[in-house]
Amino acid sequence: MKTVILAPALGYPVEQLEDFISGVCAQLDDFELVIFTDRITKQDLQKLAYPDRITLVKKKFGFAPLRVLYGKRKISKLCALILYPILRLIRFVSHSAFKTIADALLFPSVCRYLWFAEYIKGVDDDAWVIMSDTKDVIFQGDPTNGCDPTRLHTGVEEQLFRDCVTNTSWLKYVYPKSAGDLSASRVICSGFSFGKSRVVEEYLEKMVGEILRLAPKIVFQHGYDQAIHNHLLRFVFPPEFARLHSCFEGGIATLGTFGFIDEAPYSINNEGVFLFSDNQPGVLHMFDRLEARKNYSFDKVRERNSALVQARVTSS
Predict the structure, then answer these.
(1) pLDDT (0 to 100) of residue 120
(2) Among residues 160, 186, 225, 269, which one has the fewest Cβ atoms lying within 10 Å of its Cβ?
(3) Contact 217, 227 (CB under 8 A)
(4) d(C-alpha 137, C-alpha 139), whole Å
């Protein structure tokens, strides 16, 4: 069964994408990797000797004169506040014009869902569709193996909202009531999700709708896609719509907030595969945050993927 991977990679050096691309090419058989990227990164990616099944879609990295606002939280919020009434008026007058403006002003990590929703229209209903981060994702297997085709699958972090100031602030800004209701709930990560095309399309319809509704408040700012992701899966979709995967159960291991990693029952087998108790997740998300620690390395996963890619290239 074909797998379509939708992934944004704007403004990254190509070296930061090699773990992700190599893992996809090593671990998935029938796949199409669609990378939404900027002009410069696209040129660099075209130089890599990877299979023809990689599609590069050029996107602008926001509205160039305003890129300086990305990541500057207080300034970007002030600018959003100033533009708020103007953007709401444009949205009221012309939805299509507002969508174009939102595409130019939203941070790429938020705007990517608009791109995904447009691209998925041409994808077969029975295909698996993966929506993924890039530079902090490494594959060590196929995360879709054995998964329920009627549900959305997404990773859950090893922390509660009340223990994370950043996630709580994102949620409070766009959903004040939800922030209190979810205080004792684990954070659902928006960086890696998948499902059958028809399921992902249903999810994206709600996701894009909320992004456009909230766009006047969140232009220039990152992270709010995670707040929307949590709100939708906890309060809008029925509980059975999504399955939450953890390090110890399922195909997605979200490692960035794995604070007790040194005490956790994890191991690396002779093939270089990370195991959490008896679970072998197909994807390690936010692995780079753990690798920044001197006593933690994913080199065996890299070596295994590199050897598998080389074997496939040789056999073809």
Answers:
(1) 96
(2) 269
(3) no
(4) 7
Q: Do residues 190 and 226 make contact, with C-beta atoms less than 8 angstroms apart? A: yes
Q: Is 98 helix (H, G, I), strand (E, B) or coil?
A: helix
Q: Per the structure block, which two tokens stand in for 259?
A: 């604070």
| Nearest alpha carbon to residue 45 among 138, 110, 134, 117 | 134
Q: Which CB contacts under 8 angstroms, 24+ apart, belong to 236-243?
A: 236/206, 237/152, 237/203, 237/206, 240/151, 241/151, 241/152, 241/203, 242/151, 242/152, 242/153, 242/154, 243/147, 243/148, 243/151, 243/152, 243/153, 243/154
CA distance 310 to 25: 10
Rounded Cα distance between 87 and 97, Å, is 10
Residue 125 DSSP code: T
For residue range 199-254, what is the model confidence (pLDDT) as tens digits?
A: 999 999 999 999 999 988 887 777 899 999 999 999 999 999 999 998 889 999 99
Max alpha carbon distance in the chain (Å)? Answer: 61
What's the CA dihedral at 201, 285, 157, 102 to 10 degrees? -50
- The first and second tokens of residue 105, run together, are 């002003």
Taking the C-alpha atoms of residue 103 and residue 101, their distance in angstroms, rounded to an integer, is 5
Strand segments, DSSP code E, in 72-171 are: 128-132, 137-139, 152-160
Which tokens sit at 126? 């029975």
The DSSP bridge pattern shows strands 283-285 and 137-139 to be antiparallel
Q: Which domains does the chain have, with CATH numbers?
A: 3-147+190-223 (3.90.550), 252-315 (no CATH)
Sequence-distant (6+) residues with CB within 8 A of 248 are 276, 277, 279
Q: What is the pLDDT of residue 75?
A: 60
